[in-house]
Design brief:
The complex is a heterodimer of chains A (285) and B (157).
Chain A (H helix, E strand, L loop, with lengths): L1 E3 L4 H11 L4 E3 L5 H7 L6 E4 L9 E4 L2 E5 L4 H4 L3 H6 L1 H8 L4 H4 L4 H7 L7 H6 L3 E6 L2 E6 L4 E3 L2 E2 L6 E8 L5 E8 L10 E9 L5 E9 L6 E2 L1 H7 L6 H11 L13 H24 L1
Parallel strand pairs in A: 1-3, 2-3
Antiparallel strand pairs in A: 4-5, 5-10, 6-7, 6-10, 8-9, 11-12, 12-13, 13-14
Helix pairs in contact in A: 9-10, 10-11
Chain B lengths: L3 E7 L2 E7 L5 H8 L18 E4 L2 E4 L12 E3 L12 H8 L9 H14 L5 H7 L11 H13 L3
Parallel strand pairs in B: 1-5
Antiparallel strand pairs in B: 1-2, 3-4, 3-5
Helix pairs in contact in B: 2-5
The chains are: A alpha+beta (285), B alpha+beta (157).
Chain lengths: 285, 157
Amino acid sequence: MDYVRPQTIPEALAALAQAGPTATVIAGGTDIIGDIKFRGFTPSALVNINQVDGLRYIDEDASGLRIGALTSIQQLVSHPTIVKSYTALGDAAERFASLQVRNLATVAGSLGRASPGGDMAPPLMALGASVVVAGQGGEREIPLSEFFLGPRKTVLQPGELMREVRIPALPPRSGSSYARLSYRDVLDLCIVGVASCVSLAADGTVESVRIALGSVAPRPVRAANTEAFLLGRELTEDVLKEAGDVSSQDANPISDQRASAEYRRLMMPVLTRRSLARARDAALG
Amino acid sequence: MTKAEVRATINGRERELRVDPWRTLLEMLRDDLELTGTKLGCEAGECGACTVLLDGKPVVSCMTLAADADGRTIETIEGISTPERLHPLQDEFLAQSAFQCGYCAPGMIMSAKSLLDHNPHPSEAEIREAIAGNLCRCTAYVGIVKAIRNVAAEGVS
């Protein structure tokens, strides 16, 4: 196995191009090391990007939040701007794996892994985020709603490197929340995860809403029916209850070792209501 | 085959090694440096027995590349005491019977040390959160939390 440790993005792209499609990028390593040791993964080369300059930052400006690809999950936890204005992301970060894993795992790595239940995806999708991807031919920006193709599959091409996650600034009277269900509070993949982001009009009705679901489909998905139902409505308890009922149209979960399809279907409305209520309260507060 | 150069400060000492690129930090510590205090548990980053401090932050060393120790500072359980004195956490773990088989203890203590290094007066909730990534099968955590609370109350000298 070859090993290379580029220091800049152009070096990293050149290393990936030279190493070919069977090479792998490694950053936090919390998934890839397990793949190599236990799951028969034999990449032709390890391109260790941990020392690539300029990929660790959380910057806010008028256009929104920009998070460098190598930013660790732990850096998101308790970040004042994220807690206040991009709450769903903070909710997901503080429940992500364990502290020891959060200190290693990166935001981009979690997205690139494309696990159907990965915790970074639903909140970032609900916040309308996109990923900036660098390649030797230039850069492209991919909305997360178009990023995931299926379990462990994204639209990333060989030789491409995620550089940044971008979250657009939210309108006033916006709030977001991520509700997840798991057996343990720590180190447990979620059975169902629901992230929502609502923006309210001056009269308190829903002007725009994004709801993203995790662990109920081969990839994180938007709850299109629930979103359509909520537009223009005030988020009363009755409306939330009805939204929960509509949510069962938005995914067809499977049974796996974590939960049965039936249980997931029962929990989707519960978590949808929970997430929406918190997002609403944040928007109103 | 390419090897990775690792120049790291481990328990205050500069060490230089060449390792296979996929080697984990845990393997390097235990097998190459004979620092066997850090334990191999699940090997999947889920039990915390392999916890060490990397630039002061707790990480699961079984899921860290040895190559990524290059240029960094590592503290293991062997580094927190001297031949003359145990670390206050170790004293208090003994006093509170905070371990039975002892296998989780090094990782548990490193997580606790990191907590107290950053937050000398944690609440009980903060203590429990700080050790949430360290599993203990023997003790039900009661003595562990008490030991950490006592050290926090006394202050770490």
